[in-house]
Amino acid sequence: MYGTPDQGAAQYAHPDMMTLIMSVASRWQYADMRKFGIGNLSLAGGTKFPKHETHRSGLEVDVRAIRKDGKQSPCNRYHAQYDYDATKRLITLFIMSGRVKNILFNDLHVPGVSYYTDHDDHFHVSALRGI
Amino acid sequence: MRLFKPFIRLASLALFGVVSMSSLAQMEGIFTGNYIIYSGGIGDPQKPISNEKKIAIEIDGKAAKEIFNAIGPDVPDVCGATADLRIRKKNDGALSCSRSLKGEYRCHIGFDLQSGKSIGGVVC
Known about the structure:
The complex is a heterodimer of chains A (about 130) and B (about 120). Chain A has about 130 residues and is an alpha+beta fold. Chain A has two helices and four strands. In chain A, about 25% of the residues lie in helices and about 15% in strands. Chain A has a four-stranded antiparallel sheet with strand order 1-2-4-3. The two termini of chain A are about 25 Å apart. Chain B has about 120 residues and is α+β, with helices and mostly antiparallel strands. Chain B has helices at about 5-25, 60-70, and strands at about 30-40, 55-60, 85-90, 95-100, 105-110. The chains are: A alpha+beta (about 130), B alpha+beta (about 120). At the A-B interface, strand 2, strand 3 and strand 4 of A face strand 4 of B.
C-alpha cells in the first residue's frame, strides 16, 4: 500500500473493489514475483480525499506503474526503469476481470486506457459496482 | 417629463454603479484551504528535493463555490465520476473545481516552484 495520507489511512475499499484487487493479485503472482503498488483507495467514512477529485466511494484505486528493478517507489512512463511490458500485463489483468469501468493512464500504447492529466506514474482504476 | 430624463439617467447610472461596487465587494473575502509542497506526481507525491519543488493548493468553502460558479459548465464523464460529483475545469485542468452531492466545493491549482508554471493541483 502506498499513498496519501500515509500510514494506511486510505485503505478503505468497497467489497467490489476488494474482489477486483484480490482477483488481479492472484493472477499476477503466477507470472511475476514483483509486488505492484496499490494506494489511494478511500478514507474512512468516504470523506473528501486530499488532492483527488474522486476516491470517496471505495470504488477507485491508483496503481503504480511497474518498475524493472521491482523497487516499491514511483516511476513515470518516461523513466528508464519503467517496465512497459509488465505494466501493460497488469492493466490487461484488470481489464480482463470484467469488473472495471475505466482506466486512466497516459501511456496510450497500452490498450484499453484513456489519457488524463497527471497519470504518468500511476493508473487510476474505477471499478464497476455490483458485478 | 423631459426635464426629468437626465436625472433619471444619472440616477440609473448611480444605482448601477452602486450595484456594481456592491457586486465587487461580494466577490472579496478570505479563503480557507490547504497546500502541499512535493516532488514527483501529485497522485503519488514525494518529499520535495532541491531541484524539484511543486505546490498544490486546495481552496474550499465560499471561495471555491464562487470559482466553481464562474467556470462552468460541468465537464462530462471525467475521472469516472458519478452523478454524485460535478467537476469543472479550465486550461487542461490547471484550474479544477468540484461540487459534491453534499454541497462541498473544492478548487485546486498548482505551480512548479522552479519555473512558476501552472501545473494543476489535483488528480482523479
